[in-house]
Prior knowledge:
- The protein has 14 helices and eight strands.
- By secondary structure, it is of the alpha/beta class.
- Helix 6 crosses helix 7.
- It starts with 6 loop residues before the first helix and ends with a helix.
Amino acid sequence: MKLFFTRRLLTDIMKSCRFGTVLSGFGILLPSFFLGGCLSVPDNTDLVSRYFPDNPRPVLRYLESNGRRIHYAEMGDEQLPLVVFVHGTPGSWTAFAHFLRNTNLLQVSRMISVDRPGFGNSGDGRWEKRLEDHASLLEPVLNLDNSGRGAILVGHSYGGPVIARMAMDYPEKVAGIIMVAASVDPDLEHRRWYHLMAMMPPFRWVTPKPLLAANAEIFPLKGELKKMLPFWEELTMPVTVIQGGRDKLVNPGNPAFVERVAVNAPQSIQLYPEINHFIPWSHPQLIEDAILKMLAE
């Protein structure tokens, strides 16, 4: 039986974990997996009617990339500038479903929300540990832009370093990036004991596959971020960072890192002291405003 987690349930789970309750054999591991609070959701056409009870509704599509099938949801006029949403870990395209039905954005953009490799309907049992492989597998999504302007990329949490790597590897196809509560500073990324624990029996046997995939991504992240250090100064497209000061999952010091290393990119660094990690759900207006501003520029 598949479970649909809500943010309220996640909060209750994490509170229980902090008090030492072991839930279903893997409760103590949960805080490490919800990097971004991006919950893995069973992804099929039934979800479209759940998130979009009325028309218009997104079209669910696949594209081929390096022998993999990448699934995504699409809304909007194909000739308008392209905005691509990339979720955290674990997660699926539904993390940004409420943006796809945003009428202000639909008037000026074509929007695509992807299932990253290993998640949702892109989950073929193969998880990607290297950010450059994520970028390579998602690169065909950038080719869907018909406007000639390049795509604006929006990434939450783990999706932040993914879109940064996409911009580094394919700068001619990216018009700008918006990183929301993104973990990008290798000095602020630390392995924790439960990352290793999740890879060992008996915890590995009882941990759901989306959480195993999340751990497979998080464990090597520090090294992957170090690999990106030489490339930040090569970014010349606009870079927006949105970060909450009360974020308990991603260190609020990450925006200062971007400000320091992306020296050749026009920057908009937005730090909100009273906001936590769940910005796409609690403060979607901040992301909407950032997209509209970048489209206007």
